[in-house]
Design a protein that fits this description.
The protein is of the alpha+beta class and 106 residues long. The protein is built from 4 helices and 2 strands. It has a domain of 66 residues. α2 runs antiparallel to α4. The protein starts with 13 loop residues before the first helix and ends with a strand.
Length: 106
C-alpha cells in the first residue's frame, strides 16, 4: 500500500478483484507498446498518450510533496519532457499495456 492507502502496482490484482466481485472469465492481456518517433506513427501516438497521462497527474504528484522526487511542477514538467525526448531517440523504448476484462454472469 502507498502512504495514502493506495494500492500500488494494482495491475497485479485487478483480475482477482474482478473475480472477487462476481465476474467470471476474468483475464488480463498484456501488449508491448513501442514509444517514440523511432517506432513510427504508432510510437508517436503511444508516447503522446503516455506523456499526456503523466502530465495529468502532475498536480496530484505535487500535492503529495512531489513524490519525494520533484521540488516543483516545473521540475516535474522538465522530467517528463526529458523522458519524451529519450523515448524518441532510444530505439526499443516501450511500455506494457494491460487490458482487463471479465463477464458478469446473467
Amino acid at each position: 500500500m502507498g502512504n495514502k492507502g493506495t494500492l500500488l502496482r494494482c495491475g497485479v490484482y485487478i483480475a482477482d478483484m474482478l473475480r472477487a466481485t462476481g465476474f467470471v472469465d476474468a483475464k488480463c492481456e498484456e501488449v508491448i507498446m513501442d514509444l517514440g518517433k523511432w517506432a513510427g506513427e504508432d510510437g508517436v501516438q503511444g508516447r503522446d498518450m503516455t506523456i499526456s497521462a503523466w502530465r495529468g497527474m502532475r498536480d496530484s504528484v505535487m500535492r503529495a510533496r512531489g513524490a519525494g522526487r520533484f521540488e516543483s511542477g516545473e521540475e516535474f514538467n522538465r522530467a517528463v519532457d526529458e523522458i519524451s525526448e529519450e523515448w524518441d531517440n532510444i530505439e526499443g523504448s516501450h511500455t506494457t499495456v494491460r487490458a482487463f476484462y471479465g463477464r458478469k454472469p446473467l
